[in-house]
Structure formats: C-alpha cells, structure tokens
Write a structure and sequence with these properties.
Elements (H helix, E strand, L loop, with lengths): L4 E5 L4 H12 L3 E8 L12 H15 L2 E6 L1 H17 L6 H20 L4 E3 L4 E6 L2 E6 L16 H4 L2 E2 L7 H11 L20 H6 L7 E4 L5 E5 L26 E7 L4 E6 L7 E12 L9 E5 L7 E9 L2 E11 L6 E6 L2 E11 L9
Parallel strand pairs: 1-2, 1-4, 2-3, 4-7, 8-11
Antiparallel strand pairs: 5-6, 6-17, 8-9, 10-11, 12-15, 12-17, 13-14, 13-16, 14-15, 16-17
Helix pairs in contact: 1-2, 1-6, 3-4
Length: about 375
C-alpha cells in the first residue's frame, strides 16, 4: 500500500520544518513546497526570500524529503496586494496575512499541491482541525501564546478537509527543542515578524512607493489644529508612535493617539489618553463575513477578537445576513479598527469572522 502524500509549505522557518519532519515520522510521503510570493525588491536588505529558500532546502536535505520552489508572485499581487492597497487608500487598515492564507496558502498552494497528487497539505500554523459529524471545525492551537486560528478564520470546509496542522497540539518550546535535537540549520532562526511581503522594512517608506501622500491637518475633536499628518493611509486607529505631536500646553500631558480619519476633509483626529472615549467601543458592524461551517452560527453569546493579540471578549452576536453581523460587547473594546477582522469563537472553536466596517466610539464634540 502506497503512503499518503502530503505537501508541506516550507518557508525556511523552524515551524514548517518540524511540520515536515513530524509528518515524515508519521509515515506520510512528504513533499516540501517553498512559495515565492513577492518579487519587487527581492535583492533588498529587507527581503529574506533567498536566505529562506536556502534554509528550507537545507532542512529538506537534512530530514530527507523532496522540495521544490513555486512562484505565486502574480497571484499574490492580484489577489492580496491589490486589495491591501485598496483598503489603505480607503483609509482602512487591512490585515494581508489573513488574505494571504485564504487566497494563496489555502487556494493557489492547495490547487498546486493537488496537482502533485497530494491527499493533504500541511503548514506550520498553530491551530487544529477536528471533524465532528461530517463537519470540519477549526480549533485554537493548544499553545495559547502561539494560537494562529485568528489568521485562518476565512478557511472553508473544502480547505479544512484537506489541511493538516501538526503543530496544533504542541507548545512552541517543544518545536524548538526538536529542531535543536535534529541539528537543523534553522533551529535558532528567529520567527518572522511584520506583514508577509513587507517583512522588517520601514512601513511608511514602503507604502510611499505605492500610494500618493497628501498631507493634511491633525486636529482635536473640538477642531483645534495640533499638527500636520503625512497622509491618512499611514495612520491606524489607536496609533501612538509616529504621531509626531510634541508637548501641548493646553492638553493633559498624556500621550496622543490617532482616533478618527475624515477622508473628505483629509483630516486626522487625535485624542490624549489611552482610555479616551473616542478609542473605546461597545458595538461594531462588519461586512464580508466568512463562516467556517458555511453558514452563520445559531448561538448568540460568543467570544470575539478585534485584533490578534487579545483575549476573547464576551459579546452578543446579531447576524443581519450572510455577509454582515453586529457585535455588542459586555466591556468596551479599545481602538476597534476598520479594515481589521472581528473573529468569533465558541470556546476553542473558531466560527469565522468579518471585516470591521465601523464601531460606535464616542467622537463628540466632533459634528456627525
């Protein structure tokens, strides 16, 4: 009987490397696939794809699996980067890593893997898949500090049915330990941070190449000009660093935060104090909802994350139609940001989510 073939997305990092090793140990026929998704400045100091490929190939050689590289740069530009620029141009703050998973890793990559005769694909995400009564559920990774279900909430039944997440049951410390025991060349390689295609590069400098900059006034909610912004696209709700406002004799002495963008007047509104009412919301509205089960849940008392690094916040779910839902939170949520995702949970089960369109922060005395 032939072994079941699984194609593993190998990025050159330690997580995907141990994913490939674990599956080989479990008796699968493992093929590694290195995805190249960005080409515009591959020779720059910030783009690590060449070194990542060297690391992935080295690991494949060490653990004894085949590996090939595939170029998805065109698909990435069309499906992810174009949407990323559209969202920033509209004054919102997108999360391209979520789109990259839905459109590249679990679509273009999945299709390619199936063409290689694979039964499944696997990645190094810290999440789990469970089949229950014929339905595939996405579960949080057992290592709460590494759980990545937030970034996978737009996957559907067909995608989950073909996906393995071997690291979902493991703590990150164990993954590192195995890599060191195996003598992998990337055992001590630091985890990648930053947006998938931007990496560690200065963000404003990067966006400047693709979006026009239009300076404008920076105002308090009562209309007092306190500075000048460099372009609304370069600010996100709740941003403190990079605001560029010095001391304010008329203010409270507390730090300034970005609180609201008015695209019509090209004005950035700022407030002082982390817990200013303009930064707190008890309700939000979403669009472009995606449900893992294929249909909206019937339960209404759930938990939600409005950003990746936060605990599930208790809230009431009201589904208006298949594309939209509203959330009412028991406690105010900080800096709810249009363009980001509200991801919903029933305990350890990820239900899906939607793109945040608006929230009910108190912007008075700003005219409505």
């Amino acid at each position: 009987m032939s072994k079941k073939r699984v194609v593993v997305g190998m990025s050159g990092g330690v997580d995907s490397s141990i994913t490939a090793w674990l599956l080989k140990q479990q008796g699968y026929e493992v093929i590694g696939l290195f995805m190249k998704n960005w080409e515009d400045d591959d020779d720059s100091e910030y783009c690590s794809s060449r070194q990542d490929w060297i690391d992935a190939a080295s690991v494949a050689d060490t653990i004894g699996v085949e590996i090939e590289a595939v170029n998805f740069a065109t698909e990435y530009k069309d499906r992810v980067f174009a949407e990323f620029l559209r969202e920033y141009s509209a004054g919102r703050t997108p999360n391209p890593d979520v789109l990259c998973n839905a459109e590249i890793k679990f679509k273009a990559f999945l299709d390619y893997a199936m063409g290689l005769g694979a039964e499944w694909i696997a990645t190094g995400h810290y999440a789990r898949v469970r089949e229950l009564n014929g339905e595939f559920q996405l579960l949080k990774g057992l290592d709460a500090s590494k759980d990545q279900s937030y970034f996978l909430h737009r996957l559907n039944q067909a995608q989950l049915s073909k996906t393995l997440f071997p690291l979902g049951e493991m703590p990150k410390t164990q993954v590192r330990d195995i890599a060191h025991q195996l003598g992998l060349s990337n055992a001590a390689k630091k985890d990648s941070t930053g947006i998938c295609f931007i990496g560690e590069r200065p963000f404003r400098e990067f966006l400047n190449r693709y979006l026009p900059t239009k300076t404008g006034p920076m105002k308090t909610l009562d209309g007092r000009v306190v500075g000048e912004h460099v372009g609304l696209s370069f600010y996100t709700y709740g941003q403190r660093k990079g605001i560029g406002i010095g001391g304010d004799k008329k203010g409270t002495g507390q730090p300034w935060f970005s609180a609201h963008k008015d695209l019509t007047s090209n004005t950035l509104y700022v407030v002082q104090g982390h817990d200013h009412p303009a930064l707190l919301s008890t309700q939000l509205h979403t669009e472009d909802a995606s449900w893992i089960a294929g249909v909206a849940p019937t339960i209404t008392e759930i938990g939600a994350k409005t950003r990746y690094r936060q605990s599930d916040a208790p809230c009431h779910l009201n589904v208006s139609d298949v594309q939209h839902f509203n959330l009412d939170f028991a406690e105010p949520q900080w800096a709810v940001t249009p363009g980001q995702y509200a991801v919903l949970y029933d305990g350890e089960v990820c239900l899906g989510g939607g793109v945040i369109a608006s929230a009910n922060a108190d912007l008075s005395p700003l005219p409505k």
